Amino acid sequence: MRLTLEIDPRSGFCPGVIRAVEQAENYLKFNRRLCSLGAIVHNTAELERLQGKGLEIVSLDEMAQLRHDVVLIRAHGEPPETYALARANDLQVIDCTCPVVLKLQQRVHETWLRLRPTGGQVVIFGRKGHAEVNGLVGQTDGEAIVVGDVEEARALDFSRPVALFSQTTRDPGDFQRLAEFIRSQCPGAEVYDTICRQVVQRHKSLVAFAREHDVILFVSGRESSNGKVLYELCRSVNPRTYRLETADQTDLAWFRDGDKVGICGATSTPQWQLEEIFIYLQAATQND
Ligand code: SF4
To answer: Is domain 15-98 annotated with CATH 3.30.565.10?
Structure first.
């Protein structure tokens, strides 16, 4: 079977994840162990690669047991309590919070302080329990309300002022629908589209990429929030889209002779993984 294979030139890690992985690797060049609070990237293969170099993933409970150690805070960021715990336990922090997330945390905090005297509500469009969302809610002393869709937003108290923000990796179309609903209920609502521009650009380019190919192999970890959104986006324009994490999950029954196959991924998918799948498919199909 002959296939034409192409890796999406715009896929691969986003700048925030590149920065976090580089900082971890730099530290591990000279040290045998580094604790990361939560998975530094939602990708099993990349995590295993970094664990092989000495990265250890710790939970918040496990971090509470550490003393005089070094802890990496990943690109998603953390609420202020995590920094307080690090100080209390004499932990050195390698802070890899993405600058985009950091700026968003500051905006959420300032807006919350400003709206507080008026009884206003800070609303975050995001996934409850997601690390970035926890970090944002932490800027408001736990008062921000997290909504995942329009249905959940119906429970908001629209007699009070509303300021809407978004988790950086949400779907831009879903955010617009939510913003319209909130404005229809509360015309004075403040709406801040805080979806990361990297994510917005990737949405646009992925739609074009998915349309240009007969089959799309979307590579991402199951835990990746951004991966779930982008996979659904590809599938919405190309029904022959398949999600996989490693090359051996490829099923040759997905392809027909002569297909143009596009290989792409989430902001947490490393470039080497896309290349691995490219090489695997090349070997598995073009030598028949
Ligand atoms: S998606 Fe954007 S905000 Fe999130 S880590 Fe990457 S660059 Fe930063």
So the answer is: no
